[in-house]
TrEMBL record:
<dbReference type="InterPro" id="IPR010982">
    <property type="entry name" value="Lambda_DNA-bd_dom_sf"/>
</dbReference>
<dbReference type="InterPro" id="IPR035965">
    <property type="entry name" value="PAS-like_dom_sf"/>
</dbReference>
<protein>
    <submittedName>
        <fullName>Helix-turn-helix domain-containing protein</fullName>
    </submittedName>
</protein>
<dbReference type="Pfam" id="PF01381">
    <property type="entry name" value="HTH_3"/>
</dbReference>
<dbReference type="Pfam" id="PF17765">
    <property type="entry name" value="MLTR_LBD"/>
</dbReference>
<feature type="domain" description="HTH cro/C1-type">
    <location>
        <begin position="6"/>
        <end position="60"/>
    </location>
</feature>
<dbReference type="InterPro" id="IPR001387">
    <property type="entry name" value="Cro/C1-type_HTH"/>
</dbReference>
<dbReference type="InterPro" id="IPR041413">
    <property type="entry name" value="MLTR_LBD"/>
</dbReference>
Length: 245
């Protein structure tokens, strides 16, 4: 129900009723009445509270539904007609980044698309797209994890990003599921207390050993601005750049 969902998100954001009221520009009394179900919010009020809580579009839709309203933002599948423009833009970015690796990821780090260099790096072909997860490749024992020379750095960085994803989307989101799976893998528990090393970092250095040679990279992340679709909001393009250092 909406009142419980609102209270859970407010608590997760570390906000009091007063904090939320000030951010949403409503009275504390009104927030209290909504949480205690003495007042039913309008769709406009639901969206105002969701904005004050800095919720992603997917979670804003969920808030609207819980309050008895229809979703107001798209929630398309990657392969749907609605995502054609986003797919086309992603394809152009992947091609433009060649011959260096680049990946398209969803919110939970599932690999939706990749250029040939990225597929070669993970030792796969296009048949795996949509079926393999980058976090699983990095954390689970196997070819990719074994090839990462500075695995602890990469793992710490991804843990930081996953924590941020869980903060944004909630512990029961797909991101929460992926993070819990990563935490079960060998060596991860020793990294679980590292929370500040990557805070504010822009670039991730990566040393990758394959075919008898070590290549060095740094990564950048690109997202689509001002989307009105939950899927489009969550898409990132991960690009690997040669690191001569």
């Amino acid at each position: 129900m909406f009142s419980m969902m609102l209270r859970e998100w407010r608590t997760q954001r570390g906000m009091s009723q007063l904090d939320l009221a000030l951010s949403a520009e409503v009275s504390t009394r009104h927030v209290s009445f909504i949480e205690s179900e003495r007042s039913k919010p309008s769709a406009e009020m639901v969206l105002r509270l969701a904005e004050a809580l800095d919720l992603p579009l997917r979670e804003r839709n969920a808030m609207l539904v819980a309050a008895g309203f229809a979703p107001q933002f798209g929630d398309s599948r990657w392969d749907s007609p609605e995502m054609e423009e986003v797919r086309r833009a992603a394809t152009l970015l992947l091609a433009a980044h060649a011959p260096y690796p680049a990946l398209v990821l969803d919110m939970a780090f599932n690999i939706l698309d990749a250029n040939p260099a990225a597929l070669e790096m993970i030792g796969a072909d296009r048949t795996v797209l949509g079926k393999v997860n980058l976090v699983d490749l990095v954390f689970m024992p196997g070819q990719v994890r074994d090839s990462i020379v500075n695995w602890s750095d990469v793992a710490e960085y991804l843990l930081h990003r996953m924590r941020e994803g869980v903060r944004r989307h909630g512990p029961q989101s797909a991101m929460g599921t992926v993070m819990r799976r990563a935490m079960m893998q060998p060596g991860t528990a020793a990294l679980s207390m590292v929370r500040s090393h990557w805070r504010g970092s822009v670039l991730l250095p990566l040393a990758f050993h394959a075919n008898g040679q070590t290549t060095r990279w740094f990564t950048t992340v690109t997202s689509f601005g001002a989307p009105q679709d939950a899927m489009a909001e969550e898409i990132t393009i991960e690009q690997f750049h040669p690191n001569p250092g």
